[in-house]
Design goal:
The complex is a heterodimer of chains A (228) and B (444). By secondary structure, chain A is of the alpha/beta class. Chain A is built from seven helices and six strands, in the order βαββαβααβαβαα. Chain B has 444 residues and is of the alpha+beta class. In chain B, helix 3 packs antiparallel against helix 5. Classes of the chains: A alpha/beta (228), B alpha+beta (444).
């Protein structure tokens, strides 16, 4: 028994769901960079979660290609989370992924009490299925409507308008990840700022994420032959 | 944002080199840097937070040259470099731990250390407020404490501004004064709203719970901005409001706060009640730092160990203790109160009641009517209760001061107690501690 009265502080879960594009276009360096970036971001996520004892961060991953599947099926506490590399497959069936997630945003399986869930979408292309129906399914759930959303566009081919519509807030912008360094920064930001926004609201006008300082690295030395 | 090895030039002209990143906050990142004076911490703002206003605040804070060991204060301004700027401050020593570890019960500490940390926190903010500086961002994220001693360190001081100045931060909602959460016209963060944030922080320190999170919070499915605005702004209600129990703690979900509240001294409960009833609605009646200080030091002096299990318990300070003793929060055994030392300070005369459990200590501040600051370290030790080296069970008060005390027993006989000497503990023993301070030992 402890030396001071009382047990741990009561907390609420934050369900964090990665939605990762694993279509063929991600093959090669892109998927390797994504795996690396997420692996790198896990300690940061842990640190943000530790800083907020009123929140319990739980992670899951959906990958989408020709089908959408849970890469991590059950929510894993961030302290127990280890990243298993995702691999590429076929098409870009974002709609199916959104449907899959929408089923998890019903109560149940969502608990009676939670903080806002976080949906983090990473894509490099154009969806090949009815993604709008998937988005509608998310928006039809109470937790989906409340969710903090972040979107990362990998490379110049990503359909930013789809990501923008997923964000459902004109104040927010998809994050551009045109270099490994930008991707790492974007993933890091998505996995920390979004958790903060979900777990510790700050008073003020507008969406806290819109004012959240996303700062890609200033020294973008990967494109150093670009002169303008 | 900054790579290891990056070199930056401080405004003083000195060059510093980035070693590694220490952490990230709401406004920027903190790096370890090498300087000619050893390693320091560098706060580096996110470009979106690197505003001209923030630069002004940092420059003003640096120019204040605020030398106080309880704060990691901005020491030197680091000018613009690739779209941002920052400042240097001291590194936080490892012995200082964040409050989240306390809230999760992941560190070992004691009731005395927690009360000391609360008292030091109050005095730290008082030191700022008395200089006309409002902190504006009091929360668990910027106070660190030593779980052994209760020493504290306040970090992230870059939102502290002179009262009345504009500052960008509106604060973490659960620490914000209700009028600020409601964004009432004319309500601005300042020392009066700091007092609300301070009360919330103290409640969380001691009770391990938020004072406004009761049944009403349980009824909320998604605790988002709208819900927080309601709980902390529009409709705030204390979980122990004596006039309205509609937000009382749930016995299952809120067992922690029920246990910690039950184990607290009523002197503190009373201040919390005022903070979170009348104080929610009227900033002018909020509990002031001096009131917290007086209650915390009195309760700290009345902490006793349970004779059965050894755990530290708060008891009612001074002479308020009723005949019916309270049970130990840990094992339920009735607490046995040790003798009490009543110290009377030089004018303006004030009494301090110090319970004398084993190893009880009297410090220099006990002998002052209005100590500038409380200090429970060895450096300020004046007297302590010790056991006779060869006669177990016999206790005495050892003189750890530089003064020779004059002692008078209850039979009228007197004796001198020089520095390093010990006088047997007897009911009725009077001690002249020098400089106009004296003390009396009482059985209860």
């Amino acid at each position: 028994m402890s030396d001071i009265p009382g047990g741990p502080m009561a907390n609420r879960p934050v369900h964090f769901i990665w939605l990762l594009d694993c279509s063929y276009s991600m093959q090669g360096e892109k998927i390797a960079r994504l795996n690396y970036a997420i692996r790198e971001a896990v300690p940061e996520m842990r640190s943000v979660a530790h800083d907020n004892p009123a929140a319990q961060l739980l992670l899951r991953t959906v990958t989408f290609s020709t089908t959408a599947t849970w890469h991590h099926q059950t929510p894993v506490p961030v302290d127990d989370f280890t990243w298993q590399d995702v691999e590429v497959d076929g098409m870009t069936n974002l709609g199916e992924a959104l449907h899959l997630v929408s089923r998890e945003l019903q109560s149940p399986p969502m608990p009676q009490r939670a903080l806002k869930p976080v949906l983090a979408l990473v894509s490099d292309g154009v969806p090949t299925d009815d993604w709008k129906a998937g988005l509608k399914a998310i928006d039809a759930t109470p937790w989906g409507r409340k969710a903090v959303r972040v979107a990362i566009a990998i490379g110049h081919d990503a359909d930013r308008s789809v990501l923008q519509e997923f964000l459902a807030n004109p104040e927010l912008q998809p994050l551009d990840a045109n270099s490994p360094k930008q991707l790492a920064a974007a993933i890091r930001w998505a996995s920390t700022a979004a958790v903060k926004a979900a777990s510790q609201p700050v008073a003020g006008s507008g969406d806290p994420l819109a004012k959240q300082p996303f700062a890609p690295p200033v020294l973008d030395d990967d494109d150093d032959d670009d002169v303008w | 944002m900054l790579d290891s090895g990056t070199r930056l030039t401080v405004e003083t002209g000195e060059e510093v080199q980035v070693v590694d990143m220490l952490g990230a906050g709401g406004q920027g990142e903190v790096y370890r840097v090498k300087t000619s004076a050893g390693e320091k911490a560098l706060k580096w703002y996110y470009p979106t937070c690197a505003t001209i206003e923030q630069e002004g605040i940092v420059r003003e804070l640096v120019s204040r040259d605020f030398d106080d060991d309880r704060f990691l204060w901005p020491e030197a301004y680091v000018p613009w470099h690739h779209g941002s700027f920052g400042y240097l401050m001291g590194l936080r020593p490892d012995r200082f731990k964040g409050l989240p570890a306390l809230f999760r019960r992941q560190l070992r500490t004691s009731t005395r250390a927690l009360l000391t940390a609360c008292l030091y926190t109050v005095e730290a903010y008082q030191a700022l407020h008395s200089r006309g500086i409002a902190y504006r961002d009091i929360s668990w994220g910027n106070v660190f404490f030593d779980p052994d001693t209760g020493d504290i360190l306040v970090c992230d001081n870059d939102n502290a501004v002179v009262e009345g100045d504009a500052s960008g931060i509106s604060g973490t909602m659960e620490f914000m004064a209700p009028e600020l959460v409601r964004a009432e016209p004319g309500a601005r963060p300042g020392t009066q709203s700091d007092l609300h944030s301070l009360a919330v922080l103290l409640f969380m320190f001691l009770m391990n719970h938020h004072p406004l999170k009761g049944r009403r919070e349980l009824a909320i499915h998604c605790l988002d901005e709208a819900a927080e605005r309601k709980l902390y702004g529009k409709n705030p209600l204390f979980v122990f409001d004596p006039a309205d129990d509609s937000n009382e703690p749930d016995p299952m979900e809120h067992a922690t706060v029920l246990a910690t509240w039950d184990a607290s001294a009523s002197a503190l409960q009373e201040l919390f009640r005022r903070s979170f009833t009348a104080g929610l609605h009227d900033p002018a009646v909020r509990v002031r730092e001096s009131e917290w200080r007086d209650a915390l030091r009195a309760v700290r002096d009345a902490v006793v160990e349970c004779a059965s299990c050894g755990r530290q318990n708060m008891t009612e300070p001074g002479e308020q203790q009723s005949a019916a003793s309270r049970p130990c929060w840990g094992c339920g055994a009735l607490l046995v109160l040790p003798p009490r030392l009543t110290v009377t300070t030089p004018p303006p005369r004030t009494e301090r009641h110090i319970r004398l459990p084993r190893a009880a200590r009297v410090h220099a501040h006990h002998l002052e009517a209005e100590p500038a600051r409380h200090d429970y370290s060895d450096a300020s030790l004046v007297a302590e209760l010790v056991e006779h080296p060869t006669k177990p069970g016999r206790f005495g008060i050892a003189n750890r001061s530089d003064e020779t005390w004059a002692g008078t027993r209850s039979d009228g006989t007197s004796q001198q107690i020089g520095p390093g000497q010990t006088v047997p503990l007897r009911a009725g023993l009077e001690l002249d501690l020098g400089d106009g301070a004296w003390a009396v030992v009482r059985a209860k």
